[in-house]
């Protein structure tokens, strides 16, 4: 990078002597691409740790809730979203609230979208998030946490599929390979439901199939939500500032929490919450702490995911999330004594293989983009250099 700066300096000095106007133009334009700073890599590491740890701990707490006597799918779904008020201090700190530096892919809009348009986007995505969270809760209540987390790996396949239609995502052999492996990994797990244990003892074949289908549908909903969110940023919001991303997650969580709260009361499950807390095997304090920390760690996961979207892309955020899925089955064997039979091991290996294939395609795309960027920069330098 030192040689690059010397080259830029020599170019500016030459043009300053020849033409003052040209020197000002060159001084204000970065000719060569700048590398990522140490602080950027540090932030990426922090956000990645938040995603991996938040997702793993939240999933285990959700399984613990059902294992210790919890029964409410609506309440567990609410805990996925109800912690969003911890993000509100962001708006109370002037230095952060005014932060509107665009991301790399930001497209500045000359005319901001109307309030009605933004409200429609937030409400639609919020309801979709609520639907997905409830399905995830049903799946977690009927499936062992190791099986549940492996099935969730299919979210990458759904994300790629929806991105193809909504975000013009190009399919490559590596992406096709990932889709195939992740699909086979999920399908394998439906054949070993008889040996798994659920929240209340042995899970019947019928409940296992319901849990399997709900988790698959929730993964599809999650993939669709990511693609629609990316589409909303590009077509409606048309800017990707950190404040815009924070607005998206807070308003989505608010709408989704309200929808699930209505479902909690409409289903009548709220009537049994007091009895459920009293009969919780670990006690009332443990019941409250479980729900509280579930809400907090899910928001830590959300902060990490939003941070990765801000620093990189929504696709990379989903890839990191998928990376944490194979971690949960290992923790489930340690803490919940889940069985790790042959089919589940094969499914986990296929899921990891599919993830690596998907990640390698992301690496190739990033490498190709950097190569093109440097070639364009070299072309600009050659046109600026005097004959």
From TrEMBL:
Membrane-traversing stretches: 44-66, 78-96, 116-139, 145-167, 174-193, 208-228, 249-267, 287-310, 315-337, 343-360
Membrane topology: Multi-pass membrane protein
Keywords, sorted A to Z: Membrane, Transmembrane, Transmembrane helix, Transport
SUPFAM superfamilies the UniProt entry points to: Multidrug resistance efflux transporter EmrE
Location relative to the cell: Membrane
Gene Ontology CC annotation, any one: membrane
GO molecular function: purine nucleobase transmembrane transporter activity; purine nucleoside transmembrane transporter activity
InterPro entries with a match to the protein in the record: EmrE-like, PUP_plant
Family, per entry: Belongs to the purine permeases (TC 2.A.7.14) family.
UniProt protein name: Probable purine permease
Lineage, highest ranks first: Eukaryota, Viridiplantae, Streptophyta, Embryophyta, Tracheophyta
